[in-house]
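thought: fold this chain, then report.
action: predict
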Amino acid sequence: MAAKELLGPAAFYVGLLISLVAAFAAEASGTLYAVLAVLGIIVALLNITAEEVNAFILSSLAFILSAFAMHSMIGATGVILDERLVRLAANISVLLGAGVVVIALKAIYKMARAR
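observation:
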């Protein structure tokens, strides 16, 4: 495997590891979110092929919306979630969300250019 082929998966695993460690060890910060966003963009640009665009966007949005909905619904019942779990879901959402934005913009550009 070439170094470029390893960079995308490595960025994903590093992003997940940072998300996990930061959720349990530190408060959220702009720097943390910036690092996760950059890693998410790297992952999306290097890993997602044209055939995987729809699945990537759908699965990423499903995770982000589900995490938000679960947090809202559980909070509405009065149950208190461990703040570390909330931070973990937020961190992963930033990692995925940044990639979704880039891939969605690429897809929109391709569709607009084709007309």
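thought: worth noting. The longest helix spans residues 83-114.
final: tokens above.
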